[in-house]
Amino acid sequence: MKLTKRLLGVGAIAVASLAASGTATAAFPNFSDCPTASGSIYCINVASTSGSMTIKGFTVPIHDSLEIRGGLASPDGSSVVFQAPRGTSGVFARPIQVPGGLLGIDFPIPGNAVTATAKLAGPPSALRVDLNTFTLAMPMKLALTNPILGSGCQIGSDRNPANVVLTIRRIGHADFVDGALIFTGNTNGDSTFAIPGATGCGINLGLINSLVNLKLGLPSSSGNNDLTVNNNFALKSVG
User: Fold this and answer.
1) How far is 90 from 156, CA to CA, in rounded Å?
2) End-to-end alpha-carbon separation of the chain, Å?
3) Would you state the pLDDT for residue 122?
4) pLDDT tens, 198-239?
5) Are 193 and 164 in contact (CB under 8 A)?
6) Which of 183, 196, 231, 174 is nearest to 51 (CA)?
7) pTM across the whole model
């Protein structure tokens, strides 16, 4: 099958650009919930090891908080579709601490701490792998958690996401382990995406939304932001 041959040769490079979202697991690679019954050709697992998101000079470290797990399928024999494990988006994340919290002070003041959690904006099919340019387009949103901000505060939304296109900046060491092609020490990134303003903060009060926007410099146009993800990537053929 022509597409299968292409994926075998370049799929690892193309899917390496997935390294933008999910929670790192204790064991890598993790193919335990790969949706093989849904027609996936390959199982993928990408886990961040470090990195950062910078918005107009304000930097939030992402550490090992991000992971993508799932599969790649080709229903029509030419295009590539990402498939998530059942009941998930395929993007897994744990909260990361926003430096300075609400007040911009790194001190344990009650109510000041803020955490951010990366989420996929839209269905799993919103993840797009391009085998011609070896990039991945992924709409993102960030959920912010704080007692004052409430449970619905977020940057971006399904209708107005931050459209991140991750490209390969550095390919790491390649190896085959138990039938999986593994790249360790990769770097992927994007510095061209725009970030919308905050919504739903403090029961969607304009004042609280404005406070978050002021703190993070939002909305932030293209050229002012950067997402850098150092990661490990694994790809395994199904069957």
Assistant:
1) 19
2) 15
3) 93
4) 999 887 667 888 888 988 889 999 999 999 999 999 999 997
5) yes
6) 231
7) 0.82
Cα 90 from Cα 127, distance rounded (Å): 9
CA–CA separation, 237 and 111 (whole Å):
48
Domains of the chain, residue spans: 2-237
Confidence of residue 151 (pLDDT cuts 50, 70, 90): confident
Each residue's pLDDT tens digit, 54-94: 999 889 999 999 999 999 998 887 788 999 999 999 999 99
Question: DSSP string of the chain?
Answer: -HHHHHHHHHHHHHHHTTTTS----SSSS--TT--GGGTEEEEEEEEEEEEEEEETTEEEE-TT-EEEEEEEE-TTSSS-EEEPPTTS-SEEE--EEPTTTTTT--S--TTT--EEEEEESS-GGG-EEETTTTEEEEEEEEEEEBTTTBSS-EES-SSS-EEEEEEEEE--EEEEETTEEEEEEEEEEES---B--EESTTTT-HHHHHHHHHHHT-SB-TTSEEEEEEEEEEEEE--
pLDDT of residue 25: 44
Q: What is the pLDDT of residue 49?
A: 95
149: tokens are: 């901000």
